[in-house]
Write a structure and sequence with these properties.
It is built from three helices and four strands, in the order ββααββα. By secondary structure, the protein is α+β, with helices and mostly antiparallel strands. It has one domain. It has a four-stranded mixed β-sheet with strand order 3-2-1-4, with helices on one face.
Length: 92
């Protein structure tokens, strides 16, 4: 699956790592719903790091449609409230 990390480029994630990202995505939806900004920041950082460390970077000159778009690492809690609701970034 192709994941775009805004401001950093695209990464290819295998099923195992995508499942981990999806679990964190679902956790973030719950955390944001509770209004827990501190927990949001920790989990969002973890989500971004998984994509960065476990994803295979795709060369910038290669154009592929992104299956998932993750906002930039500096996403604010107020912005997250608009994004992490319902199914979050990854539909179940």
């Amino acid at each position: 699956m192709i994941v775009r990390l805004m401001g950093e480029g695209q990464f290819e994630l295998d099923k195992k790592n995508l499942d981990e990202v999806n679990k964190i995505d679902n956790d973030i939806v719950k955390i944001v719903g509770r209004g827990d900004e501190k927990a949001f920041k920790m989990q969002y950082k973890k989500l971004v790091e998984i994509v960065q460390k476990k994803g295979k970077p795709i060369a910038q000159e290669v154009l592929k449609p992104s299956d998932i778009i993750i906002p930039p690492a500096d996403l604010t809690f107020e912005e997250a409230k608009q994004i992490f609701k319902g199914e979050g970034l990854i539909p179940d």
